[in-house]
Amino acid sequence: MYSNSKIAKAVRLAMIFGAGTATAISTQTFAADEDAVEEVERIQVTGSRIKRTDIETSSPVQVTTAEDIKISGFTRMEDVLNTLPQIEAAETSFLSNGASGNATLDLRGLGSNRTLVLVNGKRLQPGGINSQAADINQIPAALVERVDVMTGGASSTYGADAVAGVVNFIMNKDFEGVKIDVGAGGYQHNNDNSYIQGLMDERNFEYESGDSGIDGKSYNIDITVGSDFADGKGHATAYAVWRRNDEMIQGTRDYASCALNGAGTSCGGSANTIVPHFDMFPVVGGLLGVDEGAAVDYSQEYWGELNPNGDDFIPDSGTRYNYAPINHFMRPNERFSIGSFVNYEISDEMNFYLESSYMSDQTAGQIAESGTFFAEEYLLDYNNPYMTDAQKSQLQDFFGQGPDEQFVAYIGKRNVEGGPRSDHLEHSSFRIVTGIEGELNEDWFYDLNFQYGSTSSSSAYVNDLLAPNINSRIGAVGTTCEDDCIPYAVWTLNGVTSEQAAQLSGTAIKTGTVTQMIVNGYATGELDITVPGTSTPLAAVVGFEYREVDYERLSDTVYADGLLLGQGGPQASLAGAFDVSEIFGELSIPLIEDAGFAESLILELGGRYSDYSTTGGDFVYKAAIDWNPIEDWKVRGSYNRAVRAPNVAELFSSQSIGLWSGDDNCSGATPSNTAAQCANTGLTAAQYASGITTSPAGQYNQFTGGNPELEPEEADTITFGVVAAPFEGFNFSVDYFDIQMEKVIGTVGASRTLQTCAETGEARFCDNVTRSPSGSLWLGQQGMVTNLTSNIGSRHWRGVDLSANYSMDVDGGSLDFSINGSYNLKKEIEPITGLSALAYDCSGNVSVDCFAQPKWRHTAKASYSADDWGVTATWRYYGKVDYDGTTDELIADGIKAYNFFDIAGSYIVTDYLTVRATINNVFDKEPPMVGNTMSSNGNAISGFYDTLGRYLHVSASLKF
Fold first, then answer.
1. Are 477 and 148 in contact (CB under 8 A)?
2. Residue 187 near residue 637 (C-beta atoms within 8 A)
3. Domain residue ranges in the chain
4. Are 597 and 629 a contacting pair, CB within 8 Å?
5. Residue 441 has what DSSP assignment?
6. How far, in Å, CA of 955 to CA of 74, rounded?
7. pLDDT tens digit string along 378-437?
8. Considering the entire predicted model, what is its pTM?
9. Domain 10-24+56-257+328-367+424-462+509-645+711-749+787-959 carries which CATH code?
């Protein structure tokens, strides 16, 4: 690891702050002895702004190299990084319903808003109107030199967002020549899942079987050019990237071709069927049902559908619409990006640099056809011109009403005549970073820079039903259908036509822009101070930063008023901004050198004071120890204090009705909650006895939105680890982490609010449950669970990361082994501060509240490289995950351990041409299937486990 020269000792003793790989390079002269001078490279690493001479220090980091990216075969950076055990899947291309169109990263599962993304050590701007987290679609995979994933807190160095850590993309700014990368890939799967095929056979659902062929095809072209200019004083690198991937719908995979019910035991679906379903109640004395004084009797609720053999109604036959096949399993996407990196040496003491990038991205999230979704309450009477006499007579007899009375109807009709819904998402981002850096003297360096980033986004939601257009077309009281109005023939079997559907169709549009402006400056160098007994001086950083974020989202009337029936609720316009002024500093103090118990012992300190325009001032800090007890061994530990201020969306998002997936345990003929528990949630005894209707799709209403009264989050991170190279060719690191957060910004969760209310009757929960007059939380929009953003509770994460590498020479080549693993000891969530009885541990558990992160997960690689060829085998292991719930029988015993195997090879054809081929998930293993309350898309935990089967990719690199 080190040699016993004076230069090596200088290198070793200069180990200060941060960990990772180089982000900037300059040189500093050290005296090897009185008669000789040698240059030792001094670098700046992820996690610190002090320039130093070593890259392994007090904070753990995982490095993904350019070669790792190439052999993965992936052209989307989120796909590459989601294979790291320290990262949970966030926004990916495998999400459709509610997709933002962005690609985000989630370190430790603490949330993408707590993962800071940097490019060359500088902050990436927010992703647009749909996400405040950085969108890594902007990152050109072909130009990435390495990715540093720093998993310790870094708020004192970079700011509040770095609670979970930092992902720093190091770009190849010094490229020479011309390089063209061309690639193509796709997925292949053998549809032979007998379990779900049997369930679909029971429903007479269609599905694919056998070999899928190559689908979900992707194509990419990356062009990079670079050269010196001005007699070597300057260097410029430029790139252009085009990438496209085809859509894949769930119907291409048998295991996703029907929507499983919550238990995972049958193909569920939606009561919004092609032939309409109806939920109807009589109106008596201005109330729904029969007035019994204090209670309302809902035993006269009529739940049924049109009679296929007559012109009246029949009870619900159990028919459900299979909405799954038409949903996107992987969204289509086309992206184009260009950018450049320019450096110019103005003088020996000053260097000018400029980074610029532009990205345009288009995608669409397609989901099943819209419908009436039982979302509106329609007031009707028995003079309705569109109902048959048999229907009117039947309802009057059923409700005990006369011909002059009224009733209300909730309608469930799937708009198959109008085609699938689709959210067309576009966003473009522009980013420019410019500054000057250089030497103040031989011991001090400076960097003064300006950054501006802007992301413009738009959403055009098409083929949804426009609520105001329906009343007059079904004969609602007080309305008429005149002139060009075509009645909506929901009362007639197979009566709806595409012309009728077209009159009901609406489009909603929202656009907006988020901008980020940063002015940053700092100086770093050595002080003329040493601790007695040491020869290495103290090193320091002092700096300032001003950051301003502006956010504006403009919604048209259709979005703002929630007029589309398939949207779940209004999405109002939103505008907000904040700015923060900060000062920061770091100090590296060599305490001991060449002692019997320490080759070196360095104390590292850091602090940052931030003054937010929204929440005021906060101070964060860091203390770390870097101890080399003997040569080739390092012990490291750190404590980081972080304070994260709420972002614009958390503060200012409009409050509106939307949907949550789960269960109302007070619904159905045999509720799992008792009558007393359901009474706590607002259900009457009569409603409990008669049974209120369960949402067939497992979706219920919630009232969500921002909160301008939010306080900043507080977090403490402790890391402790060992790094060693005990013998030639082998090195390893083991790091323990402990993260505790208080005043967590988030939501309690509608499901947890509802069930806790039932079990405890506490007002703080039950006040947030509002049932409609019928007792429902999904029929119409009167019933809902309030689930607003607030400072809700605490988080406590603990675990251990392991990394090891071994390399040896074999037959003229190099044989290399590596493993990167993470073990979760604790992921405890306390939803409400002070209510420890409600705390639950997500470590190795999956539930409606817990992401399916196993306790142990690793990626292991074995590779052999010779002069002109190489091959790599990868083993990705996901440990067993227990199920913390009672609904999903499919995973009652948990999700078993999963193994995925990949293989990749490369061959240097000529000095100019290299070809590569990759097969990921060689054995075509399907993702674990889960019920609809656990699934993120397609009966799977999409984007985490391999979602689509075997992945194949080939590419060629031409460089000259």
1. no
2. no
3. 10-24+56-257+328-367+424-462+509-645+711-749+787-959
4. yes
5. S
6. 11
7. 999 999 999 999 999 999 999 999 999 999 999 999 999 999 999 999 999 999 999 999
8. 0.88
9. 2.40.170.20
